[in-house]
Amino acid sequence: MNELLATPKEMKKVILRGIRAALLALGSATKAELSHTLGISFPTISKFLSQMEKDGELILVGLDDSSGGRRAQRYAYNPEYMLGLAIFLEKTETNYTIFNCLGEVKEQSCTSSVLMNDVQSLTKHIEDIIVKYPRISSLAIGVPGSVNNGRIIYIPDYEQFHHFDLKGYFEDRLSIPVVVENDMNAAVLGFNDNKQNKEHSSMIYLYLGQNGPGAGIMINGDVVRGSTFFSGEVSFVPQYDNSNFLQALNGGSGSKSANFREEERIDAISRLVASFTAIINPHTIIFCNDELNQSVINQIALRSASYIPEEHLPALTASNWKNDYLYGLQKLGLELMISGKKI
């Protein structure tokens, strides 16, 4: 935002976001420290802190030692002032977590799938959670489909959600900021952040999935969504004369032996690894640890090396997809809370 052109309301949001982010990062700070850190005048900081303390958003944690004048008050952010809800929709289940401003989990649970029903079923589930936790101030929703600014633009097998503006619907209904994200984009974001990766790595998170395969793509620390928000829909990648990646994974004829079908599956994944290596050359490709064990991953590494020079292959690893997914949604929801971007 160009602060010279910002309205007073927008400037207020910028300052509040800065104070919240600084206090959460620093743990605690005095008015003078916040003024110096944020480059905002001492009187402005004092005004905002007074209102935030009155609202219960801040906690006074003590007085600094005197350097000759009045002892400076030290403030910390009240992590319970706002809570976030992260929820993801899968074919067989709905997972959610409630967390505070420090990212501490208050509750995490799993319930029956709402994808097979309609948005009213999801609405009731979310509203029931908010009744229990009225301080929920942001909502992050993960879906197994392509999302364009909160609108689901591609979600096979769930027509009732196709072209549905989930973000707009819930912001209108709940009056809190909402983010809607593709499952694999959230997972790669969560994996990267949870590993506290400081090197801005490039990585691919590949999930074979309940709803067909998908990939989250991160290049130099940024999630790639594509020009039409369709990146990562790897089902469509052509691999053989008559089959794409999804068809190759499904194995074609049912008359083949289990061993032969497993070899075909490994070959299909290896070809995809080779394709990503040739096009993006990522540092790492992550698989879901309840889909592929280390033995299969080792076989994929060997087969991939038959398609592309081994020295260019990324590291192949496995992770807990569900945890990474929820962590990524939680990160997105936390950013919304700190920004205070309400409609």
Poorly predicted runs are none
What is the number of helices? 10
Query: Strand count, sense and closure of the main sheet?
Result: 5 strands, mixed
Within the largest sheet, what's the order of strands?
6-5-4-7-10
Query: What percent of residues are in strands?
Result: 15-25%
What share of the residues lie within helices? 25-40%
Total beta strand runs: 17
How would you describe this protein?
Helix 2 (31-38) packs across helix 3 and helix 6 (183-194) packs across helix 10 (321-339). The protein is elongated and about 80 Å long. It contains 10 helices and 17 strands. With 343 residues, the protein is α/β, with parallel strands linked by helices. The protein has helices at 8-26, 31-38, 42-55, 119-132, 166-174, 183-194, 245-250, 258-279, 294-304, 321-339, and strands at 29-30, 58-63, 73-77, 83-89, 94-100, 105-111, 136-143, 146-148, 151-154, 178-182, 203-207, 214-219, 222-223, 238-240, 243-244, 284-288, 315-319. The two termini are 17 Å apart. The model has no long low-confidence stretch (mean pLDDT 90). A 5-stranded mixed β-sheet has the order 6-5-4-7-10, with helices on both faces. The chain has a 5-stranded mixed β-sheet with strand order 13-12-11-16-17, sandwiched between helices. Helices cover 39% and strands 24% of the residues.
